[in-house]
Amino acid sequence: MTTPSLEALLQQEEALILSRFSVDDAWWLGCYLREKGAAGHLPIAIEICLGPTCLFSTLLPGATADNQGWIKRKVALVWRYQRSSYAMAQKFAAKEGSFERYGLDHQTYAAAGGAVPLRVTGVGMVGVVAVSGLPQLDDHLMVLDALSALQDWQKGPAQA
């Protein structure tokens, strides 16, 4: 699979701005990710936060507390830069040593895909959705797919 460019990643993020984000939306999104993960027998951890409050968190078989640690560090990076952890990983990879030049440490931040900001139209970033346990691009794409599905779900049944 070809790695998307940083510009393409940022465009994808902008296309996934939500009309709203509530506790019900978090539950729907978490269940969607869990069902996809379970159907594929994926050893993933999932976490969804609204502000500092965790609204959904689960480990599927094969995932461990280490995956939760990765999520915590990916989420910290997203809050700091308000961009997906995968987009930031690509940015840091483009210029050797830039992670450290920004004053980041690996115990607090992880520049690896899988955490994406939750943005609401007219509000901005309100939370983060994260997956850990797969190769970083797969984690990232799984979250993007789920956010696209959430946008569709929020629109409700198609009007005839």
From TrEMBL:
Q: Per the UniProt entry, what species is this protein from, by scientific name?
A: Novosphingobium umbonatum
Organism placement in taxonomy: Bacteria, Pseudomonadati, Pseudomonadota, Alphaproteobacteria, Sphingomonadales
Q: Please, which domain of life does this record's source organism belong to?
A: Bacteria
Please name the NCBIfam families in this protein's record. PRK02487.1-5
Protein's recorded name: Heme-degrading domain-containing protein
Q: Which Pfam families is this protein grouped with?
A: HbpS-like (PF03928)
The record's listing under InterPro entries reads: PduO/GlcC-like, PduO/GlcC-like_sf, YBR137W-like
